[in-house]
């Protein structure tokens, strides 16, 4: 009698994106809509008391591992907390990194595993949608990202070339393009990774604090000889509390004249997570690590420091105050006022962190 092959083992590592208030909805979605067996590790980075209580109760109910930190840490640092646990305590064949604001469509994990097994892919990402209603507007369907070496006037420059597939398109309009596709990168909103790659490349780079982590990681995988796919039949949605990435979604948001969709308890982490300091440090680290020229790719992003805060905090306030009309002057003034506030907030976080670390060494 032939021995039945056991399905590959999978552990999900759930970590923070930018806020905590969607944690329950996201986690309930995973348990309700995942038909492939999995273990789960949740990395909680100082969420509010109500969320901590929910996670403690849910971890007992579903028997998942709940790991906590005593201060805010970056998404890559949180992923490494979960990854170390998986590598040390499980024999999982795959790790799935998924952020705490993602909701999933039934069949998502089965499709990711099937793609990895059938293609021998190292990394597989789903079709990631954005906004509300869920699973309708595409945020990421994979993309191109590579380093091109150019020689000009006797000088050699290394530059990132990057483009995304199908971003902003409605799923209903591109149904003929929703097949698995080999690509250069997928994003950390949700990403399945073959366990054995970490014995080659090590843990995630914690110098990537806030932005471009997925580009850096996929460069590392490709450099190690790995292959990356987007399985477009697996569908998840991120940022369901934020803006949709198409014009219709933006107009619907503005038409509602809503203030920022945050709870007060979300703001402290959000301000650190998207701080100018972490954004700038991430871009500097990426450029230096891969010996890249400070070209338009970087100058554009340096000029756009704080854009996530402006998008989700300032612009909704301006639209609300102007009854949906918008006002460029007011927006610029609020940005000018918010930036030093963000610096103050981050410096306060950094000072408290240094004090806590010093206390541990005494």
Automatic annotation (TrEMBL):
InterPro entries: Glyco_trans_2-like, Nucleotide-diphossugar_trans. Keywords: Transferase. Signal peptide: none annotated. Pfam families: Glycos_transf_2 (PF00535). Gene3D superfamilies: Spore Coat Polysaccharide Biosynthesis Protein SpsA, Chain A (3.90.550.10). The keyword Transferase applies. The keyword Transferase applies. It comes from the Bacteria. Residues 21-129 form the Glycosyltransferase 2-like domain. The lineage of its organism: Bacteria, Bacillati, Cyanobacteriota, Cyanophyceae, Acaryochloridales. This is Glycosyl transferase, group 2 family protein, putative. One of its GO terms (molecular function) is transferase activity.
């Amino acid at each position: 009698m032939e021995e039945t092959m056991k399905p590959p083992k999978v552990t999900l590592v759930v970590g923070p994106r930018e806020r905590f208030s969607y944690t329950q909805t996201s986690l309930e979605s995973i348990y309700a809509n995942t038909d492939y067996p999995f273990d789960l590790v949740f990395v909680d980075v100082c969420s509010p008391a109500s969320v901590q209580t929910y996670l403690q109760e849910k971890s007992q109910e579903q028997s998942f591992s709940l790991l906590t930190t005593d201060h805010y840490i970056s998404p890559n640092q949180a992923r490494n907390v979960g990854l170390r646990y998986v590598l040390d305590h499980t024999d999982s064949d795959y790790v799935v990194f998924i952020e705490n604001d993602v909701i999933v469509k039934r069949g998502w994990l089965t499709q990711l595993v099937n793609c990895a097994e059938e293609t021998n892919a190292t990394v597989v990402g789903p079709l990631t949608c954005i906004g509300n209603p869920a699973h309708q507007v595409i945020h990421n369907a994979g993309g191109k990202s590579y380093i091109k070496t150019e020689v000009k006037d006797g000088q050699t420059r290394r530059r990132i070339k990057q483009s995304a597939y199908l971003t902003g398109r409605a799923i209903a309009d591109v149904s003929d393009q929703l097949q698995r596709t080999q690509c250069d990168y997928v994003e950390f909103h949700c990403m399945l990774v073959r366990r054995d790659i970490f014995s080659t490349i090590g843990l995630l780079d914690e110098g990537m604090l806030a932005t471009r982590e997925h580009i850096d990681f996929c460069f590392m995988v490709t450099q190690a000889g790995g292959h990356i796919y987007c399985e477009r039949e697996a569908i998840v949605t991120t940022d369901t509390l934020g803006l949709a990435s198409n014009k219709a979604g933006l107009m619907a948001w503005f038409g509602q004249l809503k203030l920022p969709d945050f709870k007060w308890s979300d703001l402290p982490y959000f301000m650190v997570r998207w701080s100018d300091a972490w954004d700038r440090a991430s871009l500097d680290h990426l450029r230096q690590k891969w010996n890249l020229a400070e070209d338009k790719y970087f100058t554009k992003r340096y000029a756009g420091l704080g854009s996530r805060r402006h998008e989700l905090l300032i612009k909704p306030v301006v639209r609300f105050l102007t009854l949906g009309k918008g006002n460029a002057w007011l927006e610029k003034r609020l940005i000018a006022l918010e930036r030093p506030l963000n610096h103050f907030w981050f410096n306060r976080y950094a000072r408290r962190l240094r004090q806590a670390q010093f206390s541990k060494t005494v």
